[in-house]
Design brief:
alpha+beta, 134 residues, 2 strands, 6 helices, 46% helix
Length: 134
């Protein structure tokens, strides 16, 4: 295993970046251990993609948006009515209306069906605050 550390001052804070090279067999345990340690110290550990960009949850970026808003946005993007969307999903039109208003929850099964039918990521139609990686 090898490690390197880089620090950079940003205003009144210091950004500390670690890079660890560990055997694949130990990588998951090492990542979980470090995340647990930082969490115990009161820090939020944010995931980073392969390009080094921090990933945010949908709720962090759009705190007031609901799954029904995402469904309506998809429908408007497609330029279709609630009836047309319902027909494609083989459900009643009122179910689309109720899901858009938040009266009827969008189940995982329905979210997957919407995603498959309209070539969209199904996770955006689910209400999950802890979902990483918008």
């Amino acid at each position: 295993m090898s490690a390197s550390m880089k620090t950079r001052t940003i205003g009144d804070s210091v950004k500390i970046s670690f890079s660890l090279k560990v055997p694949v067999s130990e990588s998951k345990l090492m990542a979980e251990t470090l995340k647990g340690l930082l969490t115990l110290l009161g820090h939020k550990v944010r995931p980073i993609n392969d390009e080094g960009d921090e990933l945010y949850t949908r709720a962090e970026v759009f705190p007031d948006i609901r799954p029904g808003d995402m469904l309506k946005g998809l429908r408007l993007r497609e330029g279709i009515t609630q009836k047309q969307m319902a027909d494609k999903l083989e459900i009643k039109r009122r179910h689309i209306s109720e899901m858009e208003k938040g009266v009827r929850p969008i189940t995982l099964e329905m979210a997957k069906r919407i995603g498959k039918t309209f070539n969209a990521v199904h996770k955006v139609f689910l209400l999950r605050e802890d979902e990483d990686g918008l």
